[in-house]
Design a protein that fits this description.
The complex is a heteropentamer of chains A (173), B (523), C (617), D (497) and E (101). Chain B folds into 2 domains: 248 residues, no CATH class; 240 residues, no CATH class. In chain B, 75% of the residues lie in helices and 2% in strands. Chain B is built from 22 helices and 2 strands. A two-stranded antiparallel sheet of chain B has the order 1-2. In chain C, helix 1 runs antiparallel to helix 2, helix 3 runs antiparallel to helix 19 and helix 13 runs antiparallel to helix 14. By secondary structure, chain C is mainly alpha-helical. In chain C, the strands form 2 sheets. A two-stranded antiparallel sheet of chain C has the order 1-2. In chain C, strands 3-4 form a two-stranded antiparallel sheet. Chain D has 21 helices and 2 strands. The chains are: A mainly alpha (173), B mainly alpha (523), C mainly alpha (617), D mainly alpha (497), E mainly alpha (101). Chains in contact: A-C, A-D, A-E, B-C, B-D, C-D, C-E, D-E. Chain B: Keywords: Membrane, Transmembrane, Transmembrane helix. Chain B: GO terms for molecular function: NADH dehydrogenase (ubiquinone) activity; NADH dehydrogenase activity; ubiquinone binding.
Chain lengths: 173, 523, 617, 497, 101
């Protein structure tokens, strides 16, 4: 067992543990924090997979940005939040159906991936993959890149439109 | 515009003109609505008379490019070209004349409609366009198109201008016939998809020509043909209607306004006959043989079932509804015989029942209008107050029970003549229906017109009489059939007698069609 | 003249049409239209008869309807039989038209009555002229229509309504037999023409079984129309119609149509032993059966009606015994004397306004014309020698004897005894003794008496066209000379005479002289008496069997229709609507439920795929 | 880098127009004084869409073009479906122009350009030959749609709709992306053509099939077909009517575009373990067939119980998605043609119906179907138009709906063996749909009129109604108008890269 | 380390996210679970970029796009949630049930 393997197991364990903990916790803030562990674990895995740039982005965006805005959202909406409140929806049936379906789905997929192997070792991935990614983005994937910029614009405007409290003056009009 | 298009679409002019008439101007509406049914009548009669003097109906065929469904390189130019095609032969001509005649008479009888007359006439004319189109169409798509026009028009006519349970009846009509049409559409789609044409003649040729078989776009196996024919027959069995798919008919007969029932019982049910002959026997003669026995049995069941149920009804409209079921059974009997006599009988019976049912419902309309009820148990002795009306009613009953010399007999005779050749025992069982027909029609009509004047409605009569002259309460007076009602009734009786006395009138146009059909059946 | 035979039925048809259109305007004058039309018919019929005397036949056909290669024709033919029938029918009809002028005077639907009479006469003449079965069937039914309309003439009476309906339906039952037989015959012989059918019978195209079957089926039609057992029950009820109608239709013409039909198809029947036997047995049974019922009836017209049934049974017996001539002979004489009896009965009813013989009596003096004429009729029907009935009945008895059916012969003899008994019971109760009714009874006007006188003469004279003494004119005429009178044993005539006289004597003892108490039978055999009075419970039997069965089935089907057929429809629509509401309830507004459904769907698809290894369906 | 500059960007004119219009409108909205009405923005957006439509039409004769390794493709397919998308978008924007926000909210200029952005996403979906571009494009549409659904900010229903849309959309996106990741992993490329070629040699049919199912479920969210249909009624009901019209037409069209692009290109020639080893798509046909059948049944049956017009049309749109999916499941030569015709007809009949519903909602403040009662009395023409749309939706001949549905039927039965069961299900459920469509007709024509007559239709709605009615009638009576356009695309012979 | 290990991990995380998204009551958590699902997918992409059929950095690009879109979705989702919260004063997803049937 090599060092990478050990690292993989630790990181995977962290990621899964974060997820499972999240499912078990009752406090919303704790849940988010638990997921940060997962996100960080995933970032570590990206490093193992020679995707340093993605790992950095992962840390910045998920462990950072998204977690923060989620926490903000929780704070913003946390007027009567009560930790003792029920944290899961629906009845037993709903959860059972969800669990069984998810489990069945997972098993079936696992059956497919358990020995999936293309024999590639991925050594060809350049160490400076940020540059490589840049090249791809600005040549091959120019168009989707532009579209994503539009999406972000839309998300920006949309978030403002939806979240902004309409001023009194506007409502009077 | 060509002759047939003119014939089919001429009521459209009426619809357009009606749109500009004020809603309250009922006189103009009635006048215009009736007048709009005259052009098709004249044109149809013209064609009928011309065809009698050796005019070849094929000359009337029309065909224009309409739509090209697929333009793929691996299809021939003709494939999937759906054309606007009209064309008639003797068979369609008979039904067109029937439609045109009943259309005008129903428009005249619509005097009794009091509410929303404008919309009523617009839809009535639309219904007539649909019915004429169904018989004039020379291709499946247009046949279906016109068929659905009748579906929508009938739904609205029944649902808006019908009796107390009109909407239920309208929905019943819609669902049963919609299902029939849907099934028909699937069959049409299969035929069009696999042959690349919707034209009757081309389809006929393609389906029967072994050389063309190879040119089908996708194969039509022998088994598939049975399924297709089964689908067709089932679709038309709903429209006929065959027991046990008849419940909608009963409701429509009872709830729809009588002039609409004139057209419904008179023409719409006959689309089933037409369809079964034209498509069933016309396109799948060999396969039809396999179904013939079942059809004949179903026909006999229809006859007896309808007749036995008609025996028990206390509502005249119900009696007539079940009698329609019974009479349409004769059509099935004729088709099940699958010989010339049988097919001819099916057509005759359709025309005859069309006329008779129209007469019956014309009179039912008058009865409902005058007395306010058509409940047999509440009526009686009407012949005293309304002798002329009662005379017509009696004639209708006699026609219903198939009295020789009237149209109904000719249909029953020919149909049974056909079945006696192929399945005598079954035919004999069906002939028992003749007895029941006598029982139910006489029971219903005699209970209304003969016997004592019932107390229950005497007051109605008295009341009505009292309005006119307060002194004559003791002698109830109801207005007898008036001239504007008597004229359509008389025309119908005259036609019923004409067909009954000289059926060759109908047989002549049919002769060539039958011959072709019998060739298809292999002698 | 014979090529114009088609005009014979045309006159009454014109009368019908004219009266229907203008009758209300013409009122009284309507009678003359009818009388003139039938007179013209009669004259034309006589012309045809005269032409036929020349010995030629005539047939003409037109296309009625084409079915593929088959052409159904309509036309007329003149044979000895129908030329003779034309005259009989037209003649009786004419007399009844005249008689009705008096009888129906004052009825507000006077013209309608004449219109109906015209329709009936047209149909009857048309039936007689038909050269083929189909046309015969058409007129056969039209005759039924005429009868129906006339029975129901007093439409406001519930009894008339019921009687009319019953008459139509009972005869319809027979007609369906006719219909089936006719159509079967058509496919066997490819024709409806009598001649073609006879040819097929002759050359064996028609198998013996089919011959018997079709003959019996057609005979069912005759049973219905001629009021034979077991379809006779309508005929007594039909007496609800006006009396001239009873005379014309239910005595002289229509009811004889059954006999005529069998006679017209005689070669078909002759070819089948079984069919002949059936006809004979039905005829014989009906003769005695109806006669016994006639013994106890109290309605004057009903007695006559049962007597008609009985006499028609005689005719059938004659046909079944192979004596076609005897049947037609009896048909003719019966037409005259029974018409006479009915008209006379009508005259009595006209005078006393009741039909119950218990309320009559002592009318001999009050009705100086009617009473003797009735007596003539009664003597004739009773078979008293020298009256027409004697000869024709004798001929039938002889035929039955010669045919070897001894049982039927004695049955007929017994029926003859009963006939003379109940006829004279009637006579004595109505015309002798003290008057049991109040009010004045006046003799009828001349328009009524006149036809009765003519019929009275014929009730005697018509017997002499076929007698053992002067020669068998009728027989030779009907068979184109081939007829030869088979010598019947002389004792038959003697027995017949004795029997009829005994019957009269008994009636006199019981009702005239009253030495035998009237309740002799009812006292001694109350059950038997009741049995007869209730017409052997045939009507009740039908009510409790056939009617009940049909009613049961139709009630059953009504339930099937309402609950099973509609139930299935309801089930389907109910299922759809339940599915709709379930689906709608499943849409519970929970976003996560929607997701869960999706994931469950995904899982199902994936698992099925994983388990089946991709082999779907 | 050179590729970027040498590419034939003029082929993206319609997209540029839409994007430019959106940006310009956005800027105008920003600088416009607060008190000015934003309605003209919607007219401007509609004009932009029409302009783009004209530009697309002008490019019909052009040869197929591929920019940057198929990340943008302008083939017949793209042009054909862009026509529908733009027509639907333009018509929906006409509805936006007459939108009357209720419950104290005010008209929002964002509505117009958000819809343009969504339209842009849809158009890009039609034009992409690359997995990544497809994903990003459809996400542009989806994210914009979330915003559109929530635009009635003060209405709880609208908030709820947006929320449900986001949650279900997120799950769908994740599932689809999961599927895409396997497709990507098995092939190592995002170009659809390359993927197809790679897949022909793959020896992982099981994983491929799993990817197929994941993608199918993901896409079924956009199509609103079983099993991912349940969000649609809630979102359709809660969203503003013009947005609902947009979702039911443009989003659905985009979904089918995605379906065709992805599945036909990638899976048609991929190996499978199923009944047809040569084609995964064909061996998965039964799955699609079952889903299509279920969609038709559920959509039509549940619609029977709806009283809300928007909800009813939502279920009806599920049902129509079922019909379309059935057309796809048939996989006949008529597949793309018949879907195109159907979607075209659907644009006209559905937006027409929504335009009138929008008016009813504007006027009465409620979308209960009783609001239609007696419309015929006061506004006979409007009632007649709605009647026409409903008949067309029901597939009655003489309308576009029939022609379209008939072509679907042809597709279903022309294959060997034919999909007779599916055709029958389609026929029968169509009859079920008669009940609720005719129930609206009953309201229109039979019921007594309500007291207050509706105002006249405002300009935007009346334009939309007239155009839709014309379209519905034209395709119904002169179908060659549509078929001739279709023929221009050469039956999509250049569809596969 | 083999490909399948990464894929299995991704699958587990995807399933956890999916289960959480279907059962958690707090909308924020539901949204974050969706993020987790997308993250799991990204592991797939990155793993395939290294061990897939044609290893290459375009797998990373796909993952980056996915992250961007996930962020956009999260933003809009939270905005929608805040709008909802403003009107209903709750963030529990099962209380968003006024639209149904």
């Amino acid at each position: 067992m090599s060092g990478t393997d050990i690292a993989f197991f630790l990181l995977a364990l962290a990621a899964i543990a974060g997820g499972v903990t999240m499912l078990q916790l009752t406090n919303v803030v704790h849940m988010v924090i638990a997921l940060v562990m997962t996100f960080l674990g995933i970032a570590g895995l990206y490093v193992l997979l020679s995707a340093e740039f993605v790992a950095v982005v992962q840390v910045l965006i998920y462990s950072g940005a998204i977690t923060i805005i989620m926490l903000f959202a929780i704070m913003l909406t946390r007027h009567h939040a009560d930790d003792k409140e029920r944290q899961t929806t629906g009845g037993v049936w709903h959860r059972a159906v969800a669990a069984i379906s998810v489990l069945a789905f997972g098993l079936a997929v696992y059956f497919g991936i358990r020995r999936l192997d293309f024999g590639a070792d991925g050594s060809a991935l350049a160490a400076d993959n940020a540059r490589e990614i840049g090249k791809w983005l600005y040549s091959y994937y120019t168009i989707p890149f532009e579209i994503v910029s539009v999406i972000l614009l839309v998300a920006l405007i949309g978030a403002i439109v939806l979240a902004k409290k309409d001023g009194k003056g506007a409502e009077d009009k | 515009m060509s002759f047939l298009s003119l014939l089919v679409f001429s009521p459209l002019l009426g619809i357009i003109l009606l749109a500009f008439v004020r809603r309250t101007d009922t006189k103009t509406i009635q006048w215009l609505g009736t007048a709009a049914t005259v052009p098709p009548l004249l044109l149809a009669l013209f064609a009928f008379i011309r065809s009698g003097s050796g005019f070849r109906l094929e000359q009337l065929d029309e065909s224009y490019d309409w739509v090209r469904l697929a333009n793929l390189p691996f299809f021939t130019d003709a494939a999937y070209v759906i054309r606007y095609e009209l064309g008639i032969d003797g068979l369609s001509l008979l039904f067109i004349v029937l439609t045109a005649v009943l259309g005008t008479l129903a428009a005249v009888a619509s005097l009794l409609i009091k509410v929303e007359k404008k919309g009523y006439f617009m839809w009535l004319l639309a219904l007539e366009i649909g019915m004429l189109g169904v018989f004039a169409a020379a291709n499946f798509i247009w046949f279906f198109l016109f068929l659905e026009v009748t579906l929508v028009a009938m739904f609205l006519l029944v649902g808006k201008w019908g009796g107390f349970e009109r909407e239920r009846a309208a929905y019943g009509y819609l669902l049963y016939n919609g299902l029939g049409s849907a099934l028909l559409l699937v069959v049409i789609a299969v035929l069009v998809a696999r042959t690349g044409t919707a034209n009757f003649a081309l389809l006929h040729e393609t389906l029967h020509n072994p050389v063309a078989e190879g040119q089908l776009i996708a194969p039509l196996t022998a088994e598939a043909r049975y399924w297709l024919l089964g689908g067709l027959l089932l679709a038309f069995a709903v429209k006929l209607p065959a027991v046990p798919l008849h419940r909608w008919l009963v409701r429509v007969h009872v709830e729809a306004p009588p002039p609409v029932v004139m057209l419904h019982a008179g023409v719409l049910l006959k689309i089933a006959t037409y369809g079964m002959i034209r498509f069933g026997i016309g396109l799948f003669p060999d396969e039809f043989r396999a179904f013939a026995g079942a059809i004949a049995v179903l026909g006999v069941i229809n006859i007896l079932y309808g007749a036995l149920l008609a025996l028990r009804q206390r509502e005249l409209k119900h009696v007539l509804a079940y009698s329609s079921v019974s009479h349409m059974g004769v059509v099935l009997v004729g088709l099940g015989a699958l010989n010339e006599a049988g097919i001819q009988g099916a057509v005759f019976q359709s025309v005859a029942h069309g006329l008779i049912a129209a007469l019956s419902f014309l009179l039912v309309g008058v009865l409902a209008n005058r007395i306010g009820t058509t409940d047999i148990h509440r009526l009686g002795g009407l012949a005293k107050a309304m002798p002329i009306f009662s005379g017509y009613l009696l004639t209708a009953a006699l026609a219903l029970l198939g009295l020789p010399g009237l149209a109904g007999f000719v249909g029953e005779l020919t149909a049974f003549l056909g079945l006696f050749e192929t399945k005598p025992a079954l035919a004999a069982a069906g002939a028992l229906g003749l007895i029941f027909a006598a029982v139910y029609s006489l029971r219903a009509i005699l209970d209304i017109t003969f016997g004592h004047t019932r107390e229950r409605y005497e007051s109605t009569l008295g009341l009505r009489g009292a309005k006119e002259s307060a002194a004559s309460v003791s002698e109830p007076r109801v207005i007898d059939l008036q001239a504007k009602e008597a004229v359509p009734a008389f025309v119908l009786v005259a036609l019923i007698v004409a067909v009954g006395v000289y059926p060759q009138l109908l047989a002549e146009p049919l002769a060539t069609v039958l011959e072709t059909m019998m060739n298809g059946l292999g002698g | 003249m014979m090529n114009l035979a088609w005009v014979v039925p045309l006159f009454p048809l014109c009368s019908f049409a004219l009266l229907l259109l203008f009758g209300r305007k013409w009122k009284k004058a309507s009678a003359y239209v009818g009388i003139v039309a039938t007179l013209l018919s009669l004259l034309a019929a006589l012309g045809v008869l005269a032409g036929r005397l020349g010995g030629t036949t005539y047939e003409a056909n037109w296309t009625w309807m084409q079915i593929g290669d088959v052409t159904l024709t309509a036309g007329f033919s003149v044979t000895a039989l129908n030329a003779w029938m034309l005259v009989v029918v037209a003649f009786v009809s004419w007399l009844v038209h005249i008689y009705s002028q008096g009888y129906m005077a004052g009825d507000e639907r006077f013209s309608t009555f004449y219109a109906y009479l015209g329709l009936f006469t047209f149909a009857m003449l048309g039936l007689v002229l038909s050269p083929n079965l189909l046309q015969a069937y058409i007129f056969w039914e039209l005759v039924g229509l005429g009868s129906f309309l006339l029975i129901g003439f007093y439409f406001y009476k519930e009894e008339a309504k019921a009687a009319a309906k019953k008459a139509f339906i009972m005869t319809r039952i027979g007609d369906v037999g006719f219909f089936i037989g006719m159509l079967l015959l058509f496919w066997q012989t490819k024709s409806f023409d009598y001649d073609d059918i006879f040819r097929a019978v002759g050359d064996g195209t028609l198998s013996p079984g089919m011959t018997t079957l079709t003959a019996i089926l057609i005979f069912i039609g005759a049973i219905g129309k001629s009021g034979q057992f077991p379809l006779h029950t309508w005929l007594p009820d039909a007496m609800e119609g006006p009396t001239p109608v009873s005379a014309l239709i239910h005595a002289a013409t229509m009811v004889a149509a059954g006999v005529y039909l069998v006679a017209a198809l005689f070669p078909l029947y002759e070819a089948s032993e079984a069919a002949m036997m059936t006809v004979a047995v039905i005829g014989g049974v009906t003769a005695i059966f109806a006669a016994t019922i006639g013994l106890v009836q109290t309605d004057i017209k009903r007695v006559l009606a049962y007597s008609t049934i009985s006499q028609l049974g005689y005719m059938m017996l004659a046909l079944g015994s192979g004596s076609y001539v005897a049947a037609i002979f009896h048909l003719t004489t019966h037409a005259f004397f029974k018409a006479l009896l009915f008209l006379a009965a009508g005259s009595v009813i006209h005078a006393v306004h009741t039909q119950n013989i218990e309320e009559m009596g002592g009318l001999w003096r009050r009705l100086p014309w009617t009473a003797p004429l009735f007596l003539v009729g009664a003597l004739s029907i009773s078979g008293v020698p020298l009256f027409a009935g004697f000869f024709s009945k004798d001929e039938i008895l002889a035929a039955a004897w010669l045919n070897g059916s001894v049982e039927l012969f004695w049955l007929a003899v017994a029926a003859a005894l009963l006939t003379s008994f109940y006829m004279f019971r009637l006579f004595f109760l109505v015309f002798t003794g003290e008057a049991r009714h109040d009010g004045d009874a006046h003799e009828a006007p001349m328009s009524m008496v006149g036809p009765m006188v003519v019929l009275g003469v014929l009730s005697v004279a018509s017997g002499y066209i076929q007698t053992p003494w002067f020669g068998s004119f009728l027989g030779e005429w009907l068979t184109d000379g081939a007829y030869h009178h088979e010598a019947a044993p002389g004792w038959i005539a003697v027995v017949a005479t004795i029997v009829s006289l005994v019957g009269i004597l008994l009636a006199w003892l019981m009702y005239g002289k009253r030495t035998v108490p009237r309740d002799w039978l009812s006292a001694r055999a109350p059950h038997g008496y009741e049995l007869l009075r209730r017409h052997y419970y045939v009507d009740d039997f039908y009510r409790w069997t056939v009617v009940a069965l049909v009613s049961f089935i139709s009630r059953l089907l009504a339930y099937v229709d309402r609950y099973l057929v509609e139930g299935i429809v309801r089930l389907v629509t109910g299922t759809v609507s339940a599915a709709a509401s379930a689906g709608s309830r499943g849409q519970n507004g929970q976003a996560q439920t929607y997701g869960a459904v999706t994931v469950a769907g995904l899982a199902i698809l994936v698992v099925i795929f994983a388990l089946t290894g991709g082999y779907w369906l | 880098m050179n590729d970027v500059w040498q590419a034939n960007w003029s082929m993206m004119t319609p997209e540029w127009i839409v994007l430019a219009a959106a940006i310009v409108l956005l800027l105008i909205d920003l600088v416009m004084p607060k008190e000015r009405s934003r309605r003209p923005l919607a007219w401007g957006a509609a004009a932009g869409a029409v302009l783009a439509l004209i530009a697309t039409a002008a490019m019909i004769p052009a040869d197929p073009v591929s920019i940057l390794h198929d990340t943008f493709r302008l083939d017949g397919f793209a042009k054909a479906f862009k026509l529908i998308l733009l027509a639907g978008g333009a018509l929906a924007l006409l509805l936006v122009a007459e939108w009357e926000p209720k419950e104290g909210s005010h008209y929002r200029g964002e509505f117009a350009y958000m819809m343009l952005f969504a339209l842009l996403g849809a158009m890009m979906t039609a034009s992409s030959g690359d997995l990544l571009t497809l994903f990003v494009s459809i996400e542009l549409l989806t994210v914009s749609s979330y915003v559109l659904a929530g635009l009635r900010k003060t209405a709880t229903a609208s908030n709820e709709a947006a929320l449900k849309y986001v949650i279900n959309g997120g799950i769908a996106t994740a599932i689809m992306l999961f599927g895409m990741s396997y497709v990507f992993g098995l092939t190592g490329t995002t170009n659809l053509g390359d993927i197809a070629r790679e897949l022909q040699e793959t020896n992982e049919p099981y994983m491929l099939a799993l990817a197929f199912l994941l993608l199918l479920i993901g896409v079924s969210f956009k199509l609103a077909t079983v099993p991912f249909h349940m969000w649609a009624p809630d979102v359709y009901e809660g969203a503003p009517v013009p947005a609902t019209a947009f979702f039911s037409v443009v989003s659905k069209t985009a979904g089918f575009v995605l379906l065709l692009r992805l599945f036909v290109t990638i899976f048609a020639a991929a190996p499978a373990e199923g009944r047809d080893p040569s084609s995964l798509l064909l061996s998965m046909q039964p799955v699609i067939t079952v889903l299509a059948g279920l969609t038709m049944i559920i959509g039509n049956v549940v619609a029977l119980r709806q009283r809300s017009l928007k909800r009813l049309l939502a279920y009806s749109s599920i049902a129509h998605a079922g019909y379309l999916l059935a057309g796809f499941a048939a996989m006949s030569w008529a597949m793309i043609d018949s879907l195109w015709i159907y979607l075209l007809a659907y644009v006209f009949m559905n937006i027409g119906a929504f335009a009138i519903v929008a008016h009813i909602v504007n006027e009465t403040g409620s979308d209960d179907l009783a609001g239609l009662a007696g419309l015929y009395r006061h506004r006979p023409l409007l009632a007649a138009a709605l009647g026409l749309f409903l008949l067309s939706l029901a597939g009655i001949p003489g309308t576009a709906g029939f022609i379209a549905k008939f072509y679907l039927f042809i597709g279903l039965v022309v294959t060997e063996p034919g999909h007779y069961v599916l055709a029958t299900v389609m026929a029968v459920t169509t009859v079920v749909s008669y009940v609720y469509y005719f129930n609206l007709l009953v309201q229109l024509f039979f019921r007594p009129a309500s007291l207050a007559p509706l105002r006249r239709l405002p300009a935007g709605l009346s334009t939309a109604v007239v155009l839709c009615a014309l379209g519905t009638l034209a395709i119904g009576w002169v179908p060659d108008l549509a078929y001739d356009v279709l023929a221009q695309f050469g039956h999509f012979g250049d569809f596969l890269p | 380390m083999t490909l399948s290990a990464y894929l299995a991990l991704a699958l587990i995380l995807f399933c956890i996210g999916l289960y959480g998204a279907l059962t958690k009551r707090n909308t924020v958590i539901v949204l974050i679970c969706i993020e987790l699902m997308l993250n799991a997918v990204n592991i797939n992409f990155v793993a395939f970029a290294k061990y897939g059929a044609h290893p290459g950095v375009h797998g990373h690009v796909f993952a980056l796009f996915a992250i961007a879109i996930a962020a956009a979705e999260a933003a809009v989702g939270l905005a929608a949630l805040i709008a909802f919260y403003r009107n209903r004063k709750t963030v529990q997803v099962d209380e968003a049930n006024s639209l149904k049937h």
